[in-house]
Amino acid sequence: MEIARGLEGIVLTQTRLSMVDGNVGKLVIGGFPIEALAPVAAYEETIFLLWHDRLPTPRELAQVREALVAAGSLPAETIELLRAAARRELSPMDALRMGLATLPLLDPDSSTVELQRCDRPSNQRRALAVVGAVPALIGAYHRLSQGHEPLAPDPELGHAANFLWMLGGERPTEARARALDTYLNTTVDHGMNASTFTARVIASTRSDIASAVLGALGALKGPLHGGAPGPALEMVHELRAEANRSGRSLAELAETHVRQVVGEGGRIMGFGHRVYRVRDPRADVLGGALQRLFPAAGQNPLYDDARAVEEVVLRVLAELKPHRRLATNVEFYTALLLHALELPLPVFTPTFAVARVGGWAAHVLEQVAEDRLIRPRAMYVGPIERSWVPLGERGTGLQ
Question: Under CATH, to which class is 13-221+345-370 assigned?
Answer without folding.
Answer: mainly alpha
